[in-house]
Design brief:
InterPro entries: Acyl_CoA_acyltransferase (IPR016181), GNAT_dom (IPR000182), Ribosomal_N-acetyltransferase (IPR051908). It comes from Nocardioides glacieisoli. This is N-acetyltransferase. It is a single chain. The chain is α+β, with helices and mostly antiparallel strands and about 180 residues long. The chain has a single domain, classed as 3-Layer(aba) Sandwich (Aminopeptidase), CATH 3.40.630. The protein has four helices and eight strands. It has an eight-stranded mixed beta sheet, with helices on both faces. The two termini are about 25 Å apart. About 35% of the residues are buried.
Length: about 180
Amino acid sequence: MLSLPIDDDVRLTDLEPWHAEQLAALFRAHGADFYDWLPWEGFEDVEGARGFIDSFTRGRGEGNRRLFGIWVGDELVGGTLFPSINSRSRIAEAGVFLAASARGRGIVTRAVAAMLDWAFVERGLHRVEWKCAPGNLASRRVAERLGFTHEGTLREVFPVREERQDLEVWALLSREWSGLPPRP
C-alpha cells in the first residue's frame, strides 16, 4: 500500500475495500458538491463505495488505474485518482475530489503534485492529462499551478445528471515536470 506525506497532517494513501464506509460517508456529506463536476455518482451507500474502490483495486493490480484517499489526520476528505493508466503509451489521466471543508489550503495542488511525481518518476510515464469542465475554475487553477498546458476543449463530451458538459483537456509531459514543490 502506497502512502505519501503531503504535509504534517495530510497524506495520500491507497484506498482499500475496508475504507468503503469512510468513502460512503464522505459522499453522503459532500456528494452534492462533487456531483456538480463528476460524470459518476451513487457512492453514498457502502456497497456503491466498495464497488468503486474494488474497481480501482483491481486496476492497481493490473497497472491501469489508481485511487488514493486524501487524509487530514484520520479523516478522509477526498481522493485523487488515475482513472486510466496506459503503460504501453505511457499516458495517464489524473483527477481529484475534495470536501469543501478542506479546500483553500493547497491540499489538492500538493496531492496532485505527489501523484505527478509518482507517475513520472516511479512509473516512468510520459504524459499526464487533466480534464475538467470549463466552469470548474478550481480544477483549472490546479492545472495551471502545476504547469499543465491547455490543449483544447471538447464539446458536450460527458453528461452530468441530465446536462452535457464541455471538457477541457490539459496535459503535462514528463520533461516539463520540475518535481514536487517544497513542503510548507
